[in-house]
Predict the 3D structure of the following.
Amino acid sequence: MSPGGIDLMTQHAQADHPDSAIINRAHGHLHEMVENFDAALRHGKSKTHITMLIDDLVAFLESHIELENYLMTTCNYPLINAHIEEHGQFRQRFRAILEQAADECYDRGGECKGVMPEIARLHDTHVTYYDDLLCRYLRDRYSFHAVHDGLGI
Ligand SMILES: [Fe+2]
Ligand SMILES: [Fe+2]
């Protein structure tokens, strides 16, 4: 491999792949939405408002899961089955955390403790493992093709 090829590989290995950048941006947006939900609970927003936020969060998560599933399908991702199965559990757990927190605050008149610790645990079981592996796979594939395209081979 030529020195130019090595430079190209290093450069692209450090760059984010456009698909993994989309995934990471969506994670950031979802995190912001969860923080807003948590703040709304703590500030005693109306139950109607909280229900609307839950609907928005669930809809956004659903579109994000669809995107990841689509990306895994189109790039022949080897861990696709395990990741899709995890999405099913993530979806259920995510909704349950939001609804239980709202239920505590509004229906049972309990203390509004918020959702951040539970969401952080959920994040650690999925995003920092399954999604990170997917992003690394997308990035490494890109590096491989970029090097070969750059060298014209
Ligand atoms: Fe994700
Ligand atoms: Fe995922």
About this structure: The longest helix spans residues 116-151. Residues 1-14 have pLDDT under 50 and may be disordered. Residues 23, 27, 64, 68, 127, 131 surround fe (ii) ion (ligand 1) (CB under 6 Å). Helices lie at 3-14, 18-42, 47-74, 80-106, 116-151.
